[in-house]
Write a structure and sequence with these properties.
Elements: H1 3-24, H2 33-54, H3 60-78, H4 84-101
Helix pairs in contact: 1-2, 1-4, 2-3, 3-4
């Protein structure tokens, strides 16, 4: 398996977890609810895909498709916010979605 894909997944997990935590500390946390939810979903699906790759699961392509879609949704949401953590997360999610396309 391509190390780059695994690194992109790991980077996305870290960015989403950082964004999730930082969003919880924002002054208007209610406005960040969708961002927070997508950060969690994205980190979770990336983690699941990473585990599936590690165990050579026959479901890698199916999980990669779901991961791609969730990463794209998270990137779209995070890109709406001016916070540095959201912009960094959007970038990591976009790169991860592209990496997931390689697995489909």
């Amino acid at each position: 398996m391509d190390q780059t894909v695994q690194q992109q997944l790991t980077d996305c997990i870290l960015a989403c977890n950082h964004c999730f935590d930082a969003c919880l500390k924002e002054e208007h946390v209610g406005h960040m609810a969708n961002c927070i939810r997508l950060d969690r979903d994205c980190a979770d699906i990336c983690s699941l895909l990473l585990q599936a790759i590690a165990r050579n699961s026959s479901n890698v392509a199916v999980l990669a498709k779901a991961c791609q879609e969730i990463c794209e949704a998270c990137a779209a949401e995070c890109s709406k916010h001016d916070h540095d953590h959201c912009q960094a997360c959007a970038k990591a999610c976009t790169e991860c979605a592209e990496a997931c396309r390689q697995l489909i």
